[in-house]
Amino acid sequence: MSPSGGGEKSRVLTAVVPVWLNRAEHERAHQACHASALLWNRVVAWVRGEWAEGRSPGREDMRRYVTALPSEDRPLHAHTSQAVAYDLADVIATARTNKAKGMRGVRLPWRKKAYRPLVFSARSGWRVTRDGELALSLGRGRERIVLPVPEFTDRNGELVTPDRWGEMKLCWDAGDRRWALHISHHLPADGLTDAHVGDDFCARTRVVTVAIDEGIINPMTLAARTPDGAYEVTVINGRTARAIKRERNKKHAQLQSKLSRCREGSGRHRRLMAAKGKLASRTKRRLRDFNHQVTAKADRFVRQVTAQHEEAAPDGMRVVVRLVVGDVRGIERDTAKKRRASRSTRQQLSQWERGTQERQLAYKTGLKVRHIGEVNSSQTCPYCLTRRKTRGRRYTCVNENCALVLHRGAVGGVNIHTLAVNDGTFVPVAPGAMIRVKYLRAAPRWSPDQRERHGRHQKARKRACRDDRREARSSARNRATRDGLSADQGVAVVPLRRDTKSREQGVATPPGADRAYARTD
């Protein structure tokens, strides 16, 4: 967050807006992206040469090297060229920080690039012309990239005008085969107050702890204590993401099998590669939407719990929030070498988007995500601390005096909350404390009206020549029940026999009992 012009804190958001370029603008943008990549490669080679000679160039040294190059070697706007140097300096700083933390496999920049987005700074490099078009400059003496001014709204539904725009990037999405502008803009800060480590929490400060138990089936289970002493738990279901990934994996395997039997560069090979790109792009869009659905519901939970404590707090009391997540980082490492999981489980762990969801939740709430060990959190009863392994989604305590039956994710969320407020120690929950559990789907299902209006069902109706049935499939059974068919046409309608047992006896009527089947004479 950065202060705005009036001293009010604000946060920087980035809007991804698809844009269309004509053929001439498209080729000009592609050539500029290639030139940006060549400039990156040249700066990387120069930096490595400086390192070999015992010198350590800084951020401004890289900028001066770029600006000293002749214009033929950097056919870009001056600020776009400087952005290449600044981005490289940031990458080097990040790599050194990760190496200092002990992360494995970290390397300083060395790989050559063939393509790189075009960066235009906040107040130079782009402008809105008198004709109402957006002009992106490629440097003095070169033709500009001109496109219609993109329109988009912020989170409040207000139109973001160009006077609120900051830095922007022109990016090419290889999967979607389209251009997009990544436009940054400011919005007044709406984040929650984070409980920083080392703060002086006096009697006039209330700390609200929100614990999160992460999983593959249920990506987030959030638990927090309400002002009345009860535990509020929300389980967000994520089976939609598992279905998306399973579909992607199966189709990718089929395409890869076909590619292995093709000659590289052939027409069939190009078509299959295009199909792989479309599949990856479609899956990326669906998973992006899913992650935003999950984190939006988690953000709503955190804000609702915080609002309850603010209403119940006395006048003058400050409410701060602490976001604690069970630490499962690195759970996917060495699973094949140590044989800790099956092949399908290893695939699910490697495709787990836990880190993306944590970053999005921290971004939306404005809070820092803290990690705490969660060993045995889903196996320990929160009331009596009896420990047992469980399978499935339901946890049942083996202690006869307790006999707690609760969702396994809720058990983990409550225990992580207990560990967070008791310095990593399991403490039993008070016997009278209630645990209220709510289940939410990450992506809401379609309503009957939405299914009714979907194009697939419309086409089914058209093929069946019926408009008054919700889904009139063109089958023998449905053809037998159409109006206008009589016994003279050789089709007789016979009612289907019902099961002898009724619903009153506890046995449901078999599916399709009310339908009719066709019999030809």
Can you characterise this structure?
The protein is of the alpha+beta class and about 525 residues long. It contains 11 helices and 18 strands. It has a 6-stranded mixed beta sheet with strand order 13-12-9-10-11-16. Strands 1-2-8-7-3 form a 5-stranded antiparallel beta sheet. Strands 4-5-6 form a 3-stranded antiparallel beta sheet. α2 (about 60-65) runs antiparallel to α3 (about 80-100) and α5 (about 265-310) packs across α7. The longest helix has about 45 residues, at about 265-310. The radius of gyration is 30 Å and the shape is globular. The model is unreliable at about 1-5 and about 465-520 (pLDDT under 50).
How many helix segments? 11
* Biggest sheet features: 6 strands, mixed
**Helix content estimate:** 25-40%
Structural category? alpha+beta
Strand order of the largest sheet: 13-12-9-10-11-16
- Overall pLDDT metric: 84
Rg, nearest Å: 30 Å
> What is the terminal separation in angstroms?
78 Å
Indicate the proportion of strand residues: 15-25%
Number of strands: 18
- Give the low-pLDDT segments: 1-7, 467-521
Quick overview of this protein structure:
Helix content is 35%, strand content 21%. With 521 residues, the protein is of the alpha+beta class.
Tag the structure with descriptive keywords.
521 residues; alpha+beta; 6-stranded mixed sheet; 5-stranded antiparallel sheet; 11 helices; 18 strands; disordered C terminus
